[in-house]
Structure formats: C-alpha cells, structure tokens
Amino acid sequence: MSGSTPKILFVTNDAWFFESHRLPIAVRVIADGMEAVVVAHGDESVSRISAAGCKFVHWNLSPRGRSLLSDARAFFQLMSIIKREKPTIVHLVTIKPVLYGGLISRLLSVPGCVYAISGLGAIFSNQGTVESMLRRVIMPLYKMATNHQNSELIFQNKHNQDTFKQFIGNPDRSSTLIKGSGVDLSEYRYVSEPTGVPVVTLAARLLKDKGIQEFADAASILLNRGVDAKFQIAGGNLGQGNPAAFNQQEITSFQTNPAISMLGHRKDISTLFEGSNLVVLPSYHEGLPKVLVEAGACGRAVVTSDVPGCRDAILPDESGLLVPVGDANALADAIQSLLLDDNRRKAMGKNGRELVENTMQIESVVEQHMGVYRKLLNGIFS
User: What is the C-alpha R_g of the chain?
Assistant: First the structure.
C-alpha cells in the first residue's frame, strides 16, 4: 500500500478508451488528494492523461489477441506493475483487465478491487456452441478473479448485473449499478436541429456487432424508397484482431456505397451530433453506449437495438425507437418514420436531453464512483 495517501490504479485496454470513458473519475481522485495511476496500451491519448495529473504506465496488451504467449507476457507484466506501484485500490475495466488484474490483485493481496463490467459481449449474449464452450472456460476464471474480499462489481445495466451474478453463481455478490460513463453537459449542448436535407448519423468503431452493415443496408433501402436524407458513419477501423472487425474488402464496400458517407474517426462528436437530425446505433450488445447518452445530451432522437444497454440508454418511444437486432428493414422503417415526423422527432430529442440531465450527467457518475472508493477505503482503514 502507498503510505498514508491512497492510490487508485486504473487498468484498461487502451489509453484512448480511458480518456474517453474514465478520465473525469481520475481527475476527481486527484482533486480529492489521492494518486491516480493509469495502466493501458499507450496511444496518442497518453499526453492528455498525463497532463490531467495521472501517472501513465504502458501495458503491452493485445486486448483482442488470442496468443497464449502474448497473453502470458501481458499477465506477468501487469503483475510486475501492480507489485511495483503498490496501489490501495485497483480499478479494472473490460474483460482482460478484470480477469488478469483480478487474479493478480488476489495473489498480491491488493487491499481493494473494483471490477467494471462495462458489457458482457458476444460470449454472454450469443447462444452458439462456441460461445457456450467459452463461457464454461471463462466463468470459473471470472469467479476466481472477482472474488476479492474487499471489492465491488460495477455494472451499467440491470440485465448485465443479474446475468453476471447468475453465471458466477453468487446472486448476493456486492455490486453497484452506474448508468454509463456520463456526459459533460457543458460540452454536449442542447441545440436546435439543422435545417435542410436531414442528416442521419451512426458513430461507432467499425465492428460488425455495432450494426454497421445493417445501417448501410437500411440507408440503401431508404435511398431506393426515395427518402431524401444523408446517411453518414463516423468511426475508425480500430478493431484489428477483433473477431467482429471488417476486412479491407468490406471496408472498401462501405467507402464506395453511394447511400452512405464514411467520415472516418471523429473526436468532435458533439459537433457531429449538432449537425445531425437523428442518431442511430443498431448494436448487437452493449453495457450502456456512451454515444446514445451524448446524442440525448445534444437533443437528438435515436434509433437503436432492442437489447440490454441500448434500451437502458433511452426512454423507449419517448426519446427514441427500438428495433430488433440485425433487422435492416425494421431499422429503415424506424428511421423513415422519424424523418417524416419532425414534431415527434424533435420532442424525442427534448426528452432525451431531460433524461441525461436527470440521470447521466458526468458529475453524478463521478460521485457514484467516489462512493464505491470510499466504501472500499473504509474497509481498508477502519
């Protein structure tokens, strides 16, 4: 343990993800007189994380790689980092950090541990033979990794919370429900929709399970119906090594599709949504997608999949519409219905803004995390 000053050590896959989804929590940790250390695969976000006052430690992790040798090296490197840093609390985010960091924290007797289960992914949501086999392998590891004596599980939606506890066979396990990563309302402002040809936007990494193909198909359907609208996809091809990643031929097919515009990776999501009339996310599974919260903050109605996480981010039929996952025709119908009904679409946007103001502001999300830390610190120092 790090003397009298508590140290929170965050472990996640990528620096960019930490900056996007967890940095405000680390800033608050520092403001409250504690130390914040971030362990992740380094990228261009490192300088901004460091500028915020965090110590950054590069972790040579392949988040979606399947090399046993590479994973073993990542495991022992993380063990070395945690042993050297001597954190008071380790905060683990996403699958590999939870599995590796959880086991290591128990082996090294780290005083406190937070497991952020941001989404259950295809292994839990799909019912295929491969997924079933993987669950049988992974769940005992999950159970061991998350069985720290002084710890807390954090989930983003109730379905994931209940499902995970069922799989690990411990329905009474201490856990907290925190709806997403929050949004800064000073950055994501409520503004009126643009006039002219309506703009429909999907913002997500270019992965199959984000519903990219269904969105492209829906855009083609609506183009053939004569619907006057612009369809655009904002997202980078950051899924290398991910089974859900598109190959280059598939990416090229999107780039040459006359029904959609490919914008590439965008950081100015608030500006992007301010210039949009409707936001769409036909994802297959989510924890609680930040992009839908950002859309609501900007006063934009949404169309998204009727799956856990997505439906938790909206008020169904009040701030957005839900469609069956993987159904491009239903997606096209929902998009068209809102494009043709300005009053309903704009009313949904206002409802979305109110939802975010009431339940998903960044200040509330940060304070809930601080409550988890205080609970664990009381267990350590009492």
Answer: 21
Q: How far apart are CA 82 and CA 59, in angstroms?
A: 11
**pLDDT given for residue 155 in this prediction:** 93
In this prediction the pTM is 0.88
Q: How confident is the model at residue 2 (pLDDT cuts 50, 70, 90)?
A: very low
| CA–CA gap between residue 157 and residue 311 (Å, rounded) | 9
Environment class of 8 (CB within 10 Å of its CB; exposed 0-12, middle 13-18, buried 19+): buried
Q: Which two tokens stand for residue 5?
A: 């000053």
From the candidate CATH numbers 3.90.180.10, 3.40.1500.10, 3.40.50.620, 3.40.50.2000, the one assigned to the domain spanning 7-182+362-381: 3.40.50.2000
Q: How, if at all, do strands 302-305 and 260-264 pair?
A: unpaired
Average pLDDT over residues 303-327: 96
Please name the CATH architecture into which domain 199-359 falls: 3-Layer(aba) Sandwich (3.40)
Q: Check: CB of residue 54 under 8 Å from CB of residue 7.
A: no
| Nearest alpha-carbon partner for 8 in 158, 144, 113, 150 | 113
Average pLDDT over residues 129-153: 79
Q: Is the pLDDT of residue 1 over 50?
A: no
Phi, psi angles (nearest 5°) of residue 270: -65, -45
